[in-house]
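Notes from the pairing session

We agreed to fold both candidates in a single pass and log them together. This is the raw record for the first candidate, unedited. Please don't reformat it; downstream parsing expects exactly this layout.

Candidate A
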Amino acid sequence: MSEQDLNMEEGRDSVVREPQANSVATPAWPFILMVVLLWCGMRYFDAHGGAFDNRVFAKNMSSPPPVLGMSPEQEALAKGKTVYLQYCAACHQPHGKGVPGQFPPLSGSDWVNNVGPNRMIRLVLDGVSGPITVNGAVYNNAMVPWRPMLSDEQIAWVVSYVRNDPEWGNTGTFVSAAEVKAIREATVSHAGQPYSAGELLSSPDSN
């Protein structure tokens, strides 16, 4: 056999010995394992990450944030402040000092620091229109009635906050949702009709 024939024979052997790619089905278990691990990771993140937990407070939430580890009075103040900032601060200002000549102050107000809360509950429920004297100054503007928008609990929180905020210098009793409900039901005929200052002053301020 010539050298050329030998080279051709070796070439044929190498072709025969060259590995061939075979079509092998990929097992499903790695894909299933990956999906299970991804699902477990998402569940863990959702439970411990906090980003999607509804207990995380966002300032634009419509409801007050939950307050943990506080006394009922502290909780009422925290929730009342949230309601106040959302519904009342535009007129009475975040500091509660109002706008001179336009909106009366609540901080140090002789309408707030009174015997009982009933007058203030009525005022929040149905508003007030016409001249009203607060701390010796006369204001003649209209206050929005909150009866249709705020619940008994929300009104109780905000009245309690205004009457007891330590930074405002106000001192008064805390108000319960039951007290607000009783006045709401007793004054249902007044719904939609803002009070005058005279009507509020002539109404009983405590039970």
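Candidate B (folded immediately after A)
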Amino acid sequence: MLIGKVLNDTQVIFFGLIWLRMVSFVFSSAFLGSPTVTPPIKILFSVVLAFIVFPFAKPVSTDSQSLNDFLILLAGREVLVGLILGLLTRFFFFALSMAGELISLSIGLGSAQVYNPFIGQSGQVIEQFFSLAGMVVFLALNGHHLFITALVQSFDVIPFANLSLQVGGLAEVSQKFQEIFVIMVKMASPVIATVFVVNLAMAIMGRAVPQLNVLVTSFPVTILIGLTVFIISTPLMTMEMNILMEHTSTQLFKLMRSL
């Protein structure tokens, strides 16, 4: 709809504000904001989204004078809204990374570091597995469609060209996100509990048989039993990933309604 149509100064400002929310969301989101996606692709994708949303987004104020006077504040507000929505999408992968890190440390694989492209830093092997499995679940549940839909709908719930921003809902949403950490502990609990029992048994054997070198013997036993329990409990962890995905999307839409 923009092709062949000359935009006036006010419409150019509106398009710029929409693009700022889009680009800040893309750079801070979990899937699109991955370091494996190059910045030119992120910028191009945000421009495409801005062109799609521009004909339908309704601004709060159309006064060109007020727009020019508060342009910096309006731009900062759109960047802040995009960053908040984008960072919320990362909680899904943050919880998976923390669960994988707990499991890696408990079974003795904490020193095995590999690069994790989803968080842009090195992590444990199990953490990498959780990130890849989480990405599969994320795509299987159309999580990328859900987050993009939420971004587009945010212009109906949080209109642009408006200086007001309600941040009271952030406290409530942050309290609700403690449930994500509970899910993370549930995902890692089978392996952690098993390793605890194994370490307790090895300690009793060390006291009963002093000639046994518990420190050397416990490493392969802990890794073997820990990985076995991890493989057996993988389907249960996948179910927890589904619950985690639903909880993240629920909190995302709830936050939009509170801003």
